[in-house]
């Protein structure tokens, strides 16, 4: 469904990605893990052309979208939950959800019912300003807003960042549910390697803008270098590997 081929990206003179290859097959959960500054969010953002790829190609369902303008990419069956959530803070919860609607307007009521079934807290907060929600509630709202567009590919950028353990478990439970019960294809960028690799079919380790390792989720969880670097906190072990 998504294929990233030999991708490079720059922020002015600084090269953030160096020849990255990533593929996401339909129906998979694929996770990208790495330390701060590894290039994870850059890769995610480059899919939408910010920053624009300086080399390589990005294919979605066989279509080369590398040079498409961001608004044209946004019309494809791709939705993103950005790092930091970026909800509309002064709008209500309901208004935020409605901002995600790009599909058939006749399904809006049914879609809203589906979102509050998945995230019951949003129903009682419907008329509340989104900026007054807790961090975990805001993340649920951001995911719900993305799902309102009926995406076939969901991009999640650091969904557990800054959340309490209870909400982290909820978020990864939702990821698993979306994939297993709805068949949604998901590309998940995460620092929380333990949770991310447990729900992923396959994963990539990004380090210094390059793919350092790849494998199934269980293979990477069992890899001594990955465990030392991301589960036990010694990134030097991965460099050595």
TrEMBL record:
All residue ranges annotated as the ABC transporter domain in the record: 2-233
Single GO biological process annotation from the record: L-amino acid transport
InterPro entries xref list: AAA+_ATPase, ABC_transporter-like_ATP-bd, ABC_transporter-like_CS, BCAA_Transport_ATP-bd_LivF, P-loop_NTPase
UniProt-recorded Gene Ontology molecular function terms: ATP binding; ATP hydrolysis activity; branched-chain amino acid transmembrane transporter activity
A Pfam family that the UniProt record links to this protein: ABC_tran
Record key words, sorted: Amino-acid transport, ATP-binding, Cell inner membrane, Cell membrane, Membrane, Nucleotide-binding, Transport
Family: Belongs to the ABC transporter superfamily.
Protein name listed in UniProt: ABC transporter ATP-binding protein
Lineage, broadest ranks: Bacteria, Pseudomonadati, Pseudomonadota, Betaproteobacteria, Burkholderiales
């Amino acid at each position: 469904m998504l294929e990233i081929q030999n991708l490079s990206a720059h922020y002015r003179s600084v090269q953030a990605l160096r020849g990255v290859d990533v593929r996401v097959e339909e129906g998979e959960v694929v996770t990208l893990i790495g330390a701060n500054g590894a290039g994870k969010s850059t890769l995610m953002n480059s899919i939408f052309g910010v920053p624009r790829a300086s080399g390589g190609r990005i294919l979605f369902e066989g279509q080369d979208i590398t040079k498409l303008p961001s608004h044209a990419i946004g019309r494809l069956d791709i939705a993103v939950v950005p790092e930091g959530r970026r909800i509309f803070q002064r709008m209500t919860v309901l208004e935020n959800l409605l901002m995600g609607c790009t599909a058939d307007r006749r399904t809006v009521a049914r879609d809203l019912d589906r979102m509050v079934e998945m995230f019951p807290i949003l129903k009682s907060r419907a008329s509340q300003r989104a900026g007054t929600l807790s961090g975990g509630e805001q993340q649920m709202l951001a995911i719900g807003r993305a799902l309102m567009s009926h995406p076939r590919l969901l991009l999640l950028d650091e969904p557990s960042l800054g959340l309490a353990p209870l909400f982290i478990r909820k978020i990864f439970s939702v990821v698993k549910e979306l994939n297993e019960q709805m068949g949604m294809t998901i590309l998940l960028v995460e620092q929380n390697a333990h949770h991310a690799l447990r729900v992923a079919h396959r994963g990539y380790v990004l380090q210094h803008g390059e793919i350092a390792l790849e494998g199934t989720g269980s293979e990477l969880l069992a890899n001594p270098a990955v465990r030392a670097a991301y589960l036990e906190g010694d990134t030097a072990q991965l460099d050595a590997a």
